[in-house]
């Protein structure tokens, strides 16, 4: 059951040498808290002939937050469950610090990994108050009442829950319940914090608010964190590094800005920001043909004569009423197929003479009716070469 699994992962008992001191109390120094790196080495998980996780290698430095991002079925949650110890790998290994905690030969149980995991369901005890839920892990560790009280008080203040300490989970909003789950996971001072789609049950406004809260708490405590999500906005807001997963593999790994501005594959370009992907034959190392126009691309190099593809973001494409004078490069004729007003912007679909369709995002005041002949300008410096 989820609750039982979370209890093992979140309330892992420390070794005798890992005595816990209260936050802000004697023996507790934020800069010296035990934090471990996490390393996945050729990690695979197969169910019969199907590889759900396929030869994944990933190194997460001390105190960093990495988001595993991808669509349903890409292997991100299975990877997280492998790290937590809920399932055993078919191949490869997982190391936390200097300890190998998972391999096909031996898998350390979740309760011996000093990890905290937060699930989509939050799994709060409904019969316990907020304060009792947060204190639960420390109670299992048999710390003194005074020590527990001080730590709970400090954690409730940090997570902005102090005024809700006496309430029960059923009396809280979704965002408040999520903060309780975070507080309960953080208070036991895990080496590693694991989050599995923690905001998926919240409405849009709460989800946006909690993205910043998750990042604030990470900056406060600096645990090594693995965060699973299918929401690119969550990943962009919270992560130090994003690992985009597809078909059980990591398609691209990098900081949010790099993943967004320099996608390396068609999958990453489409999944992150829904880029336009233009396919054709490379004329030379810098040019690809679109509707008879040689598009120059500065973000990488093509192989002359080979099938090729480039990506360009919708908001980087400019919609022009007329062709620029002077023969400007990367200008292609098109016809407006769709114009959707979105309040802060307009979303266009245009079609070039060779039936290639492109999305273009403009300012809301730029209003062009469907059926209008236009030109689109694709800035060379914003066109990125994609891997074949």
Written account of the structure:
The chain has 388 residues and is an alpha+beta fold. The protein folds into two domains: 2-261, Rossmann fold (3-Layer(aba) Sandwich); 274-385, Nucleic acid-binding proteins (OB fold (Dihydrolipoamide Acetyltransferase, E2P)), CATH 2.40.50.140. It is built from nine helices and 20 strands. The chain has helices at 2-10, 76-84, 130-140, 145-158, 174-187, 204-221, 232-238, 256-261, 266-271; strands spanning 38-47, 50-60, 65-69, 91-96, 99-102, 115-118, 192-196, 224-229, 241-246, 249-254, 276-281, 287-290, 293-296, 307-312, 318-320, 331-341, 346-351, 357-362, 373-377, 384-385. It has a six-stranded mixed sheet with strand order 6-7-8-3-9-10, sandwiched between helices. A five-stranded antiparallel sheet has the order 15-19-16-17-18, with no helix packed on it. Strands 2-1-4-5 form a four-stranded antiparallel sheet, with helices on one face. Helix 3 (130-140) runs parallel beside helix 5 (174-187) and helix 5 (174-187) runs parallel beside helix 6. The two termini are 44 Å apart. Mean pLDDT is 88; it is low at 1-32.
